[in-house]
Amino acid sequence: MADAGGGVGSIGNRRIALMPIDKITLYNVYCDESCHLENDGQPIMVLGAIWCPKDDARRLGAELRDIKARHRARGELKWSKTSESRLPFYLEIIDWFLAESPLHFRGLVVLNKQALNHAAFNQGDHDLFYYKMQFSLLNKILSPDSQYAIYLDIKDTRSRLKLKRLREVLCNNVYDFTSDMIGHIQNIHSHEAELMQVADYLTGALAYRHRNLQGNPAKVAVLEHLERKWGCSLSFSTPLREQKINIFLFSPRQV
Length: 255
What we know:
- This protein is an alpha/beta fold and 255 residues long.
- The protein is built from 6 helices and 8 strands, in the order E-E-E-E-H-H-E-H-E-H-E-H-H-E.
- A 6-stranded mixed beta sheet has the order 7-6-3-4-5-8, sandwiched between helices. It has a two-stranded antiparallel sheet with strand order 1-2.
């Protein structure tokens, strides 16, 4: 742990300069998932996370509520609700996300999920694989010179167990993430946090692209608008240096 005056610590075999506590940047991270069950018949699994400085989270949430009010969009922002009648609303959400420099999204897509062979590669069962993928999603976001509050969407009765296991993985892996860096981790309902709904929306969009679906013209229009304004395709991995939207595609190894 760093003291108020900073110091030197280590991450694995690396020595790092520790930031003074009063200079540590605090971030909120909101995580969502789609098609993550082992036997759901879907060819992919998608994990997504929105993050921003904690100091910006309240303002951004208020801005999103204002956009909803202008469009008379009631309830939660969800990818599954995207429709032609509300298309201007969803396009404005995309424009707002891209314009807000404090907001970032990282998505991880497991391709050919049906080809996963956990036993062959000594990776336990599907639950353990899920946590490994959550780690792969988050380890490119977390930095030892910052502190994070991580929020995960409650989806089922096992959410609390998932939360406990994920914290163990994050705090006891080879990168030696400390409990000081992950200052808070919690399950919440998506209606409790506007930015969790943005995570849902972008994760759903990423899943729609990689399922190669075309049946909803409004969803197709939103995807095309996002890719045109961003200047890249959601179909491919991005360089790690890409901060606004960072995509990683994971392909199962063949036996």
